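testing teh design pipeline on a random one, pls ignore if ur not involved
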């Protein structure tokens, strides 16, 4: 895979975000197994997009391997501590993926399909990242977020993803509500960050388009 090519990353994210709700509704292969497989696949494909990142790629590989191993272990044992280790590793990978992708698209001075795909991938990665963060808060302090099924204690559950993206887009349906102080902070930080990202992204693309047009003349 070519370094900096984010097509596979975007495809993995789309399949993941669509596949998890479908697996939840139709109980395909067992919800827990389906979610674990979906997240492991996302990590495996996602890390390929980081090729050429030097130390970042190696560090991401460590997080991915740890995330997948403890993800499988948690699925088999239902023990809480491997779940926490797995989620923490996943957060580490997501942060690296977001940083690497942003670094790549920020260096581009022209509008390209790959740059747009990378920008979209960052937005979706942020939604998944916050879903994992909400889960860790709920594991550490049960009842921090109400309106969720108590058994849905995994970031790949469609309810967590739903709450994360509803918050980031500031829809705020109110069916799932943050209760604890930390959960509230995460929620309003995500809402603010999501809006700023869209504003900066649009401004950046418009600026690049104008620069490209002027250069063409």
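output:
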């Amino acid at each position: 895979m070519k370094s900096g090519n984010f097509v596979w990353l975007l495809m993995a994210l789309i399949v993941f975000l669509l596949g998890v709700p479908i697996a939840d509704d139709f109980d395909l292969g067992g919800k827990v197994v389906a979610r674990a497989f979906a997240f492991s696949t996302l990590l495996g494909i996602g890390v390929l997009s980081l090729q050429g990142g030097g130390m970042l790629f190696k560090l991401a590989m460590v997080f991915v391997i740890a995330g997948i191993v403890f993800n499988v272990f948690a699925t088999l044992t239902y023990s809480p501590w491997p779940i926490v280790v797995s989620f923490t590793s996943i957060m580490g990978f997501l942060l690296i993926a977001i940083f690497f992708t942003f670094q790549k698209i920020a260096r581009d001075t022209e509008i390209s399909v790959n740059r747009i795909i990378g920008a979209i991938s960052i937005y979706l990665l942020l939604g998944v990242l916050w879903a994992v963060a909400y889960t860790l808060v709920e594991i550490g302090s049960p009842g921090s977020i109400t309106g969720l099924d108590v058994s849905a204690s995994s970031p790949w559950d469609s309810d967590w993803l739903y709450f994360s993206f509803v918050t980031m887009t500031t829809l705020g349906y109110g069916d799932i509500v943050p209760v604890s102080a930390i959960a509230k902070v995460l929620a309003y930080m995500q809402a603010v960050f999501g809006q700023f990202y869209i504003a900066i992204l649009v401004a950046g693309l418009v600026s690049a388009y104008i620069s490209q047009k002027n250069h063409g003349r």
